[in-house]
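Bit of a strange request maybe. I'm writing a small parser for structure token strings and I need a real example to test against, not something I typed by hand. Could someone generate the tokens for this chain?
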Amino acid sequence: QVQLVESGGGLVQAGGSLRLSCVASESIFSINPMGWYRQAPGKQRELVVLLNSGDTHYADSVKGRFTISRDNAKNTMYLQMDSLKPEDTAVYYCWGQMTYNYWGQGTQVTVSS
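Reply from user aminoacidic:
Good idea to test on real output. This should exercise your parser:
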């Protein structure tokens, strides 16, 4: 069973940047698609960005500000978040699919105004 562990969350002022990492317990070469979701207090979990066979799909709310990448050699997926806004505050989860769906435990991102 694949385990995904996120890190990199924290508190940042509006306009700042954070980079989230998601490390897999085994090679991510075969994990496709992968992506990031987030869940804000009182809201449903929503897709932030999906990476599928090299194609990316970003939520409109993060287009131009967030960038997904993956390093297969390090078994790691990243989410670079720039120009952060208070409405980006949420718990961010990495997700991957390989026969089953796998989720990380989440990392909190808080953006202050």
